[in-house]
Amino acid sequence: MKKKYNFPLKFKAVIIIIALSIILCAVSIAMSSIRFSKTNEENFKNQCRDLAHTVALTIDGDDLHKVTERVHEIFQSIPEDELITSDEWGSDEFNAYLENYKPIFDMPEYKNVLKELRQTQELGISTLSSVYTCYYTKTKSGTYYAVYLVDAAFDDPCPPGVVEHVEEAPWEIINDPSIETEPYITNTEMYGWLVTGLAPVYDSNGEFAGYATIDLSMDEIKAKESSFIQVLTLLLIILTAIICIVTLVIIDFSVIRPVNKLSNVATGYIDGNENRDKFASLDIRRSDEIGNLSDAMKKMEKDLGTYIDDLTAVTAEKERVSAELNVATRIQEDMLPKDFPERNDISLYAAMTPAKEVGGDFYDFFFVDDDHIALVIADVSGKGVPAALFSVVSKVVIRNQVHAGGTPAEVLERTNSILCSNNGSGLFVTVWLGILDLKTGDVEYVNAGHEYPIISPKDKHAEIIEKDSFPPLAAMEGIEYINERLHLNNGDNLILYTDGVPEAKAADGSRFGMDRLVEIVERNKGSAPEKLVNDIKKDVDDFQSDKDPFDDVTIMSIIWRDEE
Question: How many domains does one find in the chain?
């Protein structure tokens, strides 16, 4: 057998190791990056918070309060639809808007606060981006704005009265400035990474004057974070590559090569190169799972040789039994009558389908004399060969006893006596035996534990003839049977069947049932016996679908006609 490895074991090992390594690297880098970034951000927030509170303490609250009141007074005097945000910085409209706040620059309080803020700006803190004061307000339309007061920047300071439209902020501080505000981080194209912190400033009367605001730049630390991640990634890739190579070499020598040896020997068996010492010749001596596998294969090789010898003998025996069963099937089929009478006074058809190669059901019909025909349908308990043999004996005995003369009850009493003798297997057979008078349509019959027959008149609904039945044959000795009678009118159809029809089982466990059988009979009213029998068989087969047959299925249909 030619080896076809679309994905060899070594290739799979490489893929798995690389995949696990990539996942490990990605997780390590992600966790390190997140942890490093979180730590830096927390440190900057703490610094920003502390610096904002320090600046708030250095500002004269009375001066800032006067600046805030004056700015707010001007802000409220401007219609809301004429407010211009810093987004329009440098435009004519923006410059015209700022003209409203020019008097602020001449206020001594403004100059004092600016001086105090620039003392912080001149401290030389490398990360300090800007120091300024502001306050938050809400217009009548419900819009929130941050209004700038004093900016300590030397280059392009933000003038008093500049507003920023703010959508996300802790607006509860408008009503209660004492609430501690958490520094927040932003990243914009214009200003880069900034952490912003606020601290309230109060005047000498304890009234809120405004916020001291600090912006710390995080661009440098973010650049260091990026460099750190790049270096970490490179180191992890190098380390992972080394681990992958070492791991692959170890796996190749300790697992893949020994497995390949075992695989090659196993392939030899598939190719049919019989050699019962192949695994024994492998030099695999290890005290691990590979060694256990090698020992198991050696033992399997030895057991396989014994099994092959036994299997050869069993196969030959099975073929012999199968051939004999085929012969038995043909014999049983040949013993059932196939020449169905087609006369003016009677039409008859029957069929038997065994659940296994041979079955225990049988049917029979034969003329007792010119005016009478015997009808037999029977079902032996059990299935397979024992039931088939008992059915053959029962069929022969019943036919012989009918020819010997007597009513159906007398025939079955004698038959029961014969079958009970030497019945060591304990089998029994249910039988419906009837003798039809071809002149009158009268049927004298005995039901020995069998299914009730069905009569389908040509001008009435089909009905089940439920009369007392007697114990089956060979069940016990000394049974007395009593004859029953039924009458067939012109065109009536008598249907006989075994329990394999109503008790047929579907895949869901449901049974075929008598209602379904009667419905088929009604549907075929006026049909020939052959069509009726075949339709019943087909419906039973469809009902059972792919499920193995539950029991033998035997059906007989007889239509009597009045020749007069």
Answer: 3
